[in-house]
Every structure is written in structure tokens, then in C-alpha cells.
Amino acid sequence: MDYVDLIFAMMGLSALLSVVATALAIRSKDLLNAVIFSSVQSVAYALIYFLLLAPDIVLVYVAVSVGIYPLILILLIKKVGRYETKQNWEQLKGGDV
Amino acid sequence: MILILVLSLTYLTYLGGLGELPPNDVRLIAKNYLNLTYNPYVKSLWASSPEAVTAIVWDYRGLDTLFETVVFYGAVLAAITLFRKVAKEKDMLQSKGMSVVVKRATAIVTVAMLTVAFSTALHGHLTPGGGFQAGAIGAVAPLVMIVVFGKRYLEDRGLSYGRLLSLRNLALTGIGVTSIALFTYALIQGGFSFIFQNQGKSLSPYSFPSYTLDVPSGGILLFFNVFEFLAVLAGFTLVFLILLGSDELLSKEFEGGENGY
């Protein structure tokens, strides 16, 4: 196994991690957990960008996807409630927010 | 179904659907940029910057980046317009912020964040990174500070809407002035130069200084990176300042909505 193979193996592993994190983010009923899983996915993508020799993208991607974007989502969650329950959903459908 | 789709796409990629990975040859256009960016033997085409990405972003393709900056400016402007009634007001809630431990730790880390952001901007033509990257890194500092210290605390200490807006406008004016500075200089000297010109071309001998002391300074790239950093930092901070306001403040914006606007 030479150098390039190692890099590709690491890229594959982080891609797998990102798929798992994305699935968990979609399935999660606790929205705060979903945001954290989404950040994990972003970290995996940042690693892939780094291994693909794009450090310029990594610098902006980490700051935006792990710093700014989750914070704005957490702000939103603070206003709409943390848990995604059936009751909340029916309230939303009834227009009684 | 989804699994089959994913597996088939993976298999196709593995078989070489995207060509050979990694590609064995560098494409011609990339070769040209790599050859010319920091090539002191071809001074009519070089950018005097060891970092090829920044050279492409702000020199070879400078106008594209200028329009990107304008788009970002417009987006922030639209966000401010939505909250125009409350944007200029101070928050009425005096938040106590978090505990002393968190506050002290944040104060130390914030300095580090701003330092990293500044060095990313100033080294944009030497190491990976540039104006926008530095601005995005630096914008995390005011964001964390607003959450930890409370919005009113910072507003009482001079972080105001008006100042951020003027910093932002000043930085954008700086980008504009930098792009025509050499043109004006050449005009005064009775010569001729292009707008957005960095180093001398075969038609025009004028150029920005390519070395500061003995470090390559990238000429125009350094100025653009610093101004872009300030513009992005001020823009992001403005949006956070508005979005992180208390519910009482933000709901004032929507008062009387039932009766139409």
C-alpha cells in the first residue's frame, strides 16, 4: 500500500463517516442533535477537501460549516422548539403556532 | 432503492466513470498558471505571488471576485432591509451573559481568533487563504462574543450598527480605489495602464511593488485581501448583531402586521 492508496483509503473512510452522520441527522428527532451530526458531516467533508489538496476551501468551509451555520440553526431551534414530535407537527399543520 | 443507486454510482466511479483517479497529467490551463504565477523571468505575465489560487482569484480573474463581493454586499443589505426598523436600536434587554470562567476563556480565545484571521488575510498571497477565508474566520469571534457577553454589553462598548456599516462601506471603497489606483497613477504620469492591473504588462510598464523588503508582497493582492477581510468581517458581524437580538426587539419589527404595511 503506497502513499496515494493511503490517502484514498482515508478519503473513503471520511466519506463513509459523512454518510452515517447525514443519515443520523435526518433520522434524529432531537433537532439539536441533528445540527451536531450535520457538523460532524462537515468535518468529514473538510478532511476530504484537505486530502484533495484544496486548503483554501478548507479554511472557509470549516469556519462557515462548523462555526456560523450551526449557530444560525441553533438560533432557529431556540425559537421553534427542540423536539420534533407529532404534537408539534399537528400544531404546525393546523396553523396554530 | 437508494442503496442500489448509491452502490451503482460507487461501482461506476470505481470502474473509472470519472476518468483516471488521481489524474496522471496536469491540464494545460493549470500548467500555464503554475508556470507563470511566480515566474520572475516572464515579468509581463507574472502575479508576483507564490500562491497560485490567490493570484487567479484576485489578479487573473479579479473581476469575477469583485462581482462576488458585490453579491455578498447585496445579500447583507437585503438582510438589513428586512429589519430596518430595529437595526439602529440598542437591545433593551441587559443580558448578564455566561459565567466568569466562560467569559475569561472567551476573551483569550477571541484574541487568538482575530490574530489568525488577520494573519490569514496578510499572508493571503503566500499561504493558502485570502480575504474571504480570513473574514469568515474572524466573524466567528464577534459571534461567540455576542453569545457569551450578551449583545447589549458589546453595544454599550461601541460595537454599533453605524460603525460596522461605515467600516464595510470603507472597505468596499478601498477595493474600488485599489483597482483604479494604478490607472490614475499612470494617467498622471502621462502613460497608460489597465484597470485591475497588478504587475506591468507588455503594453504598460507600470506595476504595484512586487516586494516589500525581500518578501514577495503580491502587489495588488495584499490590498485586496485586507479590504475584502474587513468587508466580510463587518458584513457577517452586522447580520449576527441583528439576528441575535432579543425576541422583544425583533418582534417590534412585525408590530401592526395584521393591518398591512
TrEMBL record, chain A:
What InterPro entries does this protein map onto?
A: MrpA_C/MbhD
For this record, an example GO cellular component is: plasma membrane
Q: What subcellular locations does the record give?
A: Cell membrane
One Pfam family cited in the UniProt record for this chain: MbhD
MrpA C-terminal/MbhD domain span: 16-81
Which keywords does the record carry? Cell membrane, Membrane, Transmembrane, Transmembrane helix
Provide the topology term for how it sits in the membrane. Answer: Multi-pass membrane protein
Task: Please list every transmembrane segment annotated in the UniProt record, as residue ranges.
Answer: 6-26, 31-52, 58-77
Name of this chain's protein: MrpA C-terminal/MbhD domain-containing protein
